[in-house]
């Protein structure tokens, strides 16, 4: 195995990793960025935020065009050329990932396309197409992200069973799409496939959609989705999915849900799991919690002082802007600057139609914690911008 010495290593090239690499390079560190994929950008650019927002924009335009007909502007029934839609999605992704390549070159960040696993608290094994390297490092920032959670009882080998990555591939438009999980990702995928013509059923184990957001905040969305979708079953568990030739059969358990429903495709969107189990942390003293999230302090240091961790791999909220800000902070701390991750709030947005956004303590959390608060609200029906954009259901 070839041996090399490195100054600051970043493991993972998603929004957390590339932000950390760029900031550290700007601060004068010699940075080695290790990413197993030949393209940078991680989940967000390649199979997350960017493809989903590109397709959601099309969904919004399609829906707005339909709403305009009664107001005197008609475009006719939309037709879909999936090949062109996919090409548009890929060109948006390509522009952004290409931009990252240029930013890396401009900062002389050394890139290695390979998979990194720990050998010790100071050493990393990197396997590339051509060789195996042993890298010893001064500082290292772990930014290996997360992946979709799988639940038992689902035939994942069946090509009609999707995770979010498969859903965003847009291979075809299923007639009936069942979505397990009524969180942000589930509802965003529902929004795009509904606009493209799928009949949507949502099954959510909690008693409401987008569980973290306050009830009154999401009420306009929930009211609209109840009219648009085939069914929304909350407080309902999917016990198993049977793959029959003609359809997927979902077995449900919930007071108001039928025992079974049929679908032509099923999206499983029940949360994401940290990728901390794929980097041989057992060869180090780095600690994770019971959920597999790497434990860090406000300076984003793990319990090994020269190893930092950022982004989805340190836990909720799993959002790109949190990852990139943590990347900046970790690079600064590793480079001797007085920086810390102490946000007053981190904004969350469901890019549904209408969108739902929140930040900081919710009303429900304030009540639960006995914190006194004042509440202000303003109805969308009285909001000129909302009315003029025809976005009120
Ligand atoms: P990731 O983006 O997961 O990047 C980790 C990188 O590490 C990957 O490129 C991976 O290949 C690499 N890696 C892993 N293990 C190794 C290894 N051993 N060696 C080398 N490389 C490795 N967030 C938002 O803020 N807004 C949104 O609108 C939004 N929409 C989303 C839509 C979808 C469908 C999904 C799935 C997610 C969305 N997110 C959104 C979440 C966002 O994508 C993540 O929070 C963000 O990508 C996390 O960044 P990260 O750098 O921590 O990890």
From TrEMBL:
Its cofactor is FAD. GO terms for molecular function: dihydrolipoyl dehydrogenase (NADH) activity. Keywords: Disulfide bond, FAD, Flavoprotein, NAD, Oxidoreductase, Redox-active center. Its EC number is 1.8.1.4. It comes from the Bacteria. Residues 346-388 form the Pyridine nucleotide-disulphide oxidoreductase dimerisation domain. PROSITE patterns: PYRIDINE_REDOX_1 (PS00076). Binds 1 FAD per subunit. Residues 7-327 form the FAD/NAD(P)-binding domain. It catalyses: N(6)-[(R)-dihydrolipoyl]-L-lysyl-[protein] + NAD(+) = N(6)-[(R)-lipoyl]-L-lysyl-[protein] + NADH + H(+). The keyword Oxidoreductase applies. Belongs to the class-I pyridine nucleotide-disulfide oxidoreductase family. The active site is a redox-active disulfide bond. This is Dihydrolipoyl dehydrogenase. The gene is lpdA.
